Amino acid sequence: MATHVRGAARRAQLLDQLSALFLAEGFAHLTLDELATRLRCSKSTLYGLAESKEQLVRAAAIHFFRGATDQVEGRLAGEAGARDRIRTYLEAVGEQLRPASRRFMDDVAANATVREVYEVNTAFAARRVQELITEGVRSGEFRDVHAAFVAEVASSTMVRIQRRQVSAATGLDDAQAYGELAALLTHGLTP
């Protein structure tokens, strides 16, 4: 049992390190040999995490987004009131994406496997925003808006952020764009 726990802890540690490395430097240009050297482990250790570099990058992306989701939801748990919850949620999403370098985002955009992981997480976040808007309308804190429509607008913006279109059009990085989306929604929904 103790060996299994140590193995799981080592796996999580390696995925944390891979995520941090990929966020800072991107991943397309890195080889498995370079990754093993940088992480001070063997290639066989990396192959224990995934069968190929592509799957290793995917595993690190999934690990990152799971951790980010936990962090965002943790921040949200401490908030009361729909306005504060939406603002906190979107700002927390932005904070989680802040370490993502331009090179990482460009690599994500160019890699279908990792882009899909990002898109799934963006869709989850959009559904969560819709839930928060619906809660605010029900409680009377927000104007009586069509929550699904407002969430669709937010979702479209979130997808544009993920696809780097907002950055190209405005110069904002993803974290800044999420902050602006939070401000737009929280001010636009209140009476």
UniProtKB/TrEMBL annotation:
- Which regions of the protein are recorded as binding DNA? 31-50
Key words, A-Z: DNA-binding, Transcription, Transcription regulation
Query: Which SUPFAM superfamilies does this chain map to?
Result: Homeodomain-like, Tetracyclin repressor-like, C-terminal domain
Please indicate if the UniProt record lists Cell membrane as a keyword: no
Does the record carry Transcription as a key word? yes
Q: Which residues form the HTH tetR-type domain?
A: 8-68
The record's annotation in Gene3D superfamilies points to: Homeodomain-like, Tetracycline Repressor, domain 2
Q: Which Pfam families would you find in this protein's record?
A: TetR_N
Q: InterPro entries from the entry? A: Homeodomain-like_sf, HTH-type_TetR-like_transc_reg, HTH_TetR, Tet_transcr_reg_TetR-rel_C_sf
* Alphabetized PANTHER family for the sequence: HTH-TYPE TRANSCRIPTIONAL REGULATOR BETI (PTHR30055:SF234), HTH-TYPE TRANSCRIPTIONAL REGULATOR RUTR (PTHR30055)
The name this protein carries in UniProt is TetR/AcrR family transcriptional regulator
Q: Which organism is it from?
A: Rhodococcus kronopolitis
Starting at the broadest rank, the lineage of the source organism is:
Bacteria, Bacillati, Actinomycetota, Actinomycetes, Mycobacteriales
